[in-house]
Amino acid sequence: MPTAKEASRVDEVYVKKSKKKKKHKHKRSGNESDCHQPNLKLSINVESDTKVTSLTVNQERKRKNSDSSPVHKKPATEAPSADRMTSAVGTHSSTHSERAVQAKPSPHVAKQQKFPVKLSAFPYGNYNRYYGYRNAGHEDCRFSVLRSEWFRGKEVLDIGCNTGQFTLMVAKEMRPQRMIGIDIDGQLIKIAQKNIRHYLSSSDRSSAFPMSLMMAYGESAAPFQPGSLTAFPNNVVFVKGNYVLESDSLLELVKPEFDMVLLLSTSKWMHLNWGDTGLKRAFKRIFAQLRPGGYFLLEAQPWESYSKSKRINETLRKTYNTIQLKPERFHDYLVSAEVGFSSYELLDTPYNQSKGFQRPIYLFTKSL
Fold this sequence. Notes:
Layout: H1 4-35, H2 57-68, H3 95-103, H4 107-113, H5 130-135, E1 155-159, H6 165-173, E2 178-183, H7 186-195, H8 202-205, H9 211-217, E3 236-240, E4 258-264, H10 267-289, E5 290-299, H11 306-309, H12 314-320, H13 330-334, E6 343-348, E7 361-365
Parallel strand pairs: 1-2, 1-4, 2-3, 4-5
Antiparallel strand pairs: 5-7, 6-7
Helix pairs in contact: 10-12
């Protein structure tokens, strides 16, 4: 049995230990209370385009867990790194700015691909109202430079005849033995055939059609006139076709058959569609189709007009950039050994109400 003194010492030790335990227990309970406080908010700055979001601790845990998940998902709002948060003046720019710059289309590319819709239907200069705005109610002034001896009783080819008004005027007034108008646009050829009636007298229009012409051209075409086959309108015919040959080898098959060839305000469209090669081939074909002593009448559009016409489509624009033979050098090329004309002369620059149609007309001669 312990004495009274020893019992009191044991009691003191026990009291001290119990106090320490209580103190320790109090600390643990305090820590536990801190960990179990619900929804304690922790301010976290998340930079987006326009706002700062405050996330709870639980939301932050979920975000971290989702980040560590093996399934890679793009967050709705991505928090940028320190580099991305740097000022635009520094070495790192904003990711959104970079994307905006990349997404913005180049205005230069957009401009190249934009072509006038109204002109896109006329890549060959095949305007169906060409004579309406060229002559504007008055006589074609180019007719004044022509001489009857070049045409009377001769065989004539008009390249790029359009709706045939100038062709018909020459066929009627200059009285060639045969006049052929050729154009690449079949619709313009049909209009030219119908326009023949407008150049006939009232008595001629009342003549009867042969059945073959009615079937070929319809009732609106010109009636066949009895008598000489070289009298108007029997001396004129319109043909659809591309005058530019596909290759130089075909030039060997060309035979002389005309005394006069007209190329009026057509060279630019050959040039823009088939380049220097195509235009040179057309010039060589003209020379080959002329008989000795024959004439070539050329009205070329100036180089300044090409820049507007190239905007019709991408093909013309690309060809324009490859052209080396400019219109002011056409006459030098035509009298060179590569083509063969012996001489040329400037006939006139006929007046027109529109200065754009005041173009010089040259006459080239093939030697006998």
